[in-house]
Amino acid sequence: MKNVLEFEKRLAQITIPADQRRDDESTYHKITLKELKMKCKAIDWVSYYRRAFGPIGREITENEQIVIYSPQYMSNLSDLIEEHLRDEQKKIVVANYLGWSVVQTMTSCLAKPFREASKILRKALMGSEGTESPWRYCVTDTNGVMGFALGAMFVKAVFHGDSKLMAQTMIEEVRDAFKSNLPNLKWMDEHTRQLAKEKADAITDMIGFPDFILDSTKLNQKYEGLILEENDYFTNNIEVNRFALRRNIQKIDKMANKSEWEMSPPTVNAYYTPTKNQIVFPAGILQAPFYDVNYPKSLNFGAMGVVMGHELSHAFDDQGREYDKSGNLHQWWKNSTIRKFEERMKCFVDQYTKYNVGSDHVNGKQTIGENVADNGGLTAAYNAYKSWLSKHPTELPLPGVNLTNLQLFFVGFSQVWCSTSTPEALKLQIMNDPHSPAQFRVIGTLSNSYEFAQQFKCSPNTRMNPEKKCVVW
Ligand SMILES: [Zn+2]
């Protein structure tokens, strides 16, 4: 196992860090399996893919096209494998590594000694054993493997009929606010600005859940071929993997399905897909503390409105902006505007890199996309709320809280990030996660906001109202 660990370390050493893999235009390499074989000859790619696609009988030849993100990694990987295969003693390490990789992914389905051992690792990495009550484990696990079947039960129980309409209206309000701000952005040229507006208009959305889950015939079709046994947890997990693989490989040669959901309905999260130019908000996030029909609009716009603005802004972050309104990756911005955009990116990178937890600094490059989305989202939602206020009778202030509506907007935003974390988990997050730690998602965005400083009357040149502010959208 020591040798396996050493092998894994070597893999880590040749892996290109995430902050150097953000530019999709430069990481996109479409090549044939024949060309891949030249870069990485240690692996017989044609027979590998023939085997992988065996279950659906799809023919694979050396002319098959494939997209790889790091040719450098592939050739270093090849060298590493060949170095081991040349040596009789080292040969077995590769086999053990592959065996271990399979065992590791299955530990949660294995007997107690395996699960106990993985707790020790988890404790070291995350600072907690992650022991949760059995009901919670079971619900989470079921959501992971059959999220749409579970989602049907979830939405029937808690997703109110008018929530979808409410979300739709709010998305339009935030989108309009985002577009209305485009003419104020002096760094953009007219042509790129017009295309950006068209891209914002072309963003499609999916809200709550896909309709098919409420139709039991269609829901059954979704899981057709998946056979689960009541008392065989391990085999069930193998079956789920086999089923998911088969479903995925069947997508080859087909047009992209733009109505497919990447998150299940109960998920408390949202996402933007650049290749589909689409934002998605599962039912799980369309509830308190993000949204409630009985909340003041200030809190709803501050929480849910900012989430919507965040996902929308992803269409225009360092990665999203490389895709056009149809989801195609190619340059559609003027060179001069790209340069000005990059200057603005540098401002955010420098700002967030200064934030630290102990000796660990936030990686400003790794988190740039999320930070841009947070900042753009806050501005769009704030402007959307102001526009809503101008069209509706005055919203009554919240009794017992000595805050104005516009101040409440910022409180609503900050409150969804109230959280706690072990030092170990925080360290791991700073190292791997594209999101900044929660506290900096609040401090970073609010200290860039002129409106925040104005509403809370922050003195100039203070921590939350620095003179230098980073603004892009
Ligand atoms: Zn995001």
Automatic annotation (TrEMBL):
GO cellular component, one term: plasma membrane
Keyword Cytoplasm: no
UniProtKB keywords: Hydrolase, Metal-binding, Metalloprotease, Protease, Zinc
Domain Peptidase M13 N-terminal, residue spans: 1-210
InterPro entries xrefs: MetalloPept_cat_dom_sf (IPR024079), Peptidase_M13 (IPR000718), Peptidase_M13_C (IPR018497), Peptidase_M13_dom_2 (IPR042089), Peptidase_M13_N (IPR008753)
Transmembrane segments: none
Pfam family for this entry, one: Peptidase_M13
Any one of the GO BP annotations: protein processing
Family the UniProt entry places it in: Belongs to the peptidase M13 family.
Name of the protein described by the UniProt record: Endothelin-converting enzyme 1
Taxonomic superkingdom: Eukaryota
Matching SUPFAM superfamilies: Metalloproteases ('zincins'), catalytic domain
Cofactor(s) listed in the protein's UniProt record: Zn(2+)
Domain Peptidase M13 C-terminal as annotated: residue spans: 269-471
GO molecular function: metal ion binding; metalloendopeptidase activity
